[in-house]
Amino acid sequence: MILKKFSIEEYGYYSILLNLCNWGGVIANLGIPKLVLKSSSISKSIKFFSIFKKGFLQLIFLIAFLLLLSIIRTDIGVYQMIIICLVGIFSLFYQLITKAYQGIDSLSFSATFADSLLSIMVQWILILLLLLTNKAFEPETLVLTFAVSNLISICLVLLYLKRKNLLDFEFNQMNIIEEFRIIISNSYKLYIIELINRAMVLLPLLILPIFLDIKEIGVFGFAEKLGMISTTILTAINFWLAPEFRKLSIKGRLKDIGVLYKKVIKKIALFGFLFFFILMISSKYVITLINEEYLNYKLILFIYMLTNFINIIFGPVGWILIMTDNEKRLIVNNLISLGIFIFPIIFNQTSVYFAFLVLIMIFTNNILNYKSIKKIGIL
């Protein structure tokens, strides 16, 4: 319904603005959400003020990003800057809260729901209200729903955690500068991984405006959102498994990690195949229902769906490397994969060629990560 409200050009503008929000989140991320998930897997409560301090450190980096953006992109107005800031602040803090909850109670449905689905469902409700109350609205309004949904979700999760007595409000008297230093020293490898991972997702959309017109950017934005439908379940499973991987790693039970991975991957691969098959046979109807203009770019959409299918069948190989303290291997694998996308750009700048490069990049990354977990004795 939303896509029918926007032309392809408007959706291209929406994709660019949302991409800037995502990059703000990437720069300010600092690898802290992964650090929180990793450390809280051996904890029994969430230290609220520790989370707050980590969020404040992220806010400093987010403001630095906005200042830099105001210099580089003079076409981005004050209203857009405020939207980017709000989306960044609330999404980052929401990640910290939910990752901490996922770490201490990874097997519970409520933790998985809060981490993977709550904010999305709240946003859908907000969008539905927009559709019911407005015949037309700007792309900025749609982006703003990300900020509002995360703020509402933060409040709901905190109320639930308080009710379950999982929040610890003990205040740490450590010097804030020293605490920031400790956080950075523990999270910098995870930050590098996060930067490269997000670059693999967002860099194509960042580079596309240099070579392609706004309509083609809209197509890539739509293709990415279409692919995210299939990876939502994978993301939830990844965050559910990650703390379990960490607990087994601390106990030195690497083979048990491999057994758990094999059990889960069979089910994930079956789901991925069925979803990919259903999406393929119904894609023409779905695309026509949304906007017939997208039918002119069927090959790009197919390549992106195939890319997400590849991600699904390999499963949480990257998370296994993180939770077993093999971040350096993951960094090398990601850099090699990213290079496979960047360097061939000089030979061709068509939209289909870009889509193929994304496919090759993701496939290479998964193969390298899979080989890495075999080398360290998990498989």
Task: For the record, give the distance between the C-alpha atoms at the N and C termini, rounded to a whole number.
Answer: 45 Å
Q: Can you write the helix and strand succession as a string?
A: HHHEHHHHHEHHHHHHH
Number of H/I helices? 15
Return the average pLDDT rounded to an integer: 80
**Spatial sequence of strands, sheet with the most strands:** 1-2
Strand percentage lies at: under 5%
Helix content: over 70%
Give a quick account of the main beta sheet: strands, pairing sense, barrel closure: 2 strands, parallel
Q: Which radius of gyration do the C-alpha atoms yield?
A: 21 Å
The dominant shape is globular
Contiguous uncertain segments of 5+ residues: none
Short characterization:
The protein is mainly alpha-helical.
What does this structure look like?
By secondary structure, the chain is mostly helical. The model has no long low-confidence stretch (mean pLDDT 80). The longest helix has 37 residues, at 214-250. The chain is globular. α2 (8-29) packs across α5 (78-104), α4 (48-72) runs antiparallel to α5 (78-104) and α11 packs antiparallel against α12 (298-314). It is built from 15 helices and 2 strands.
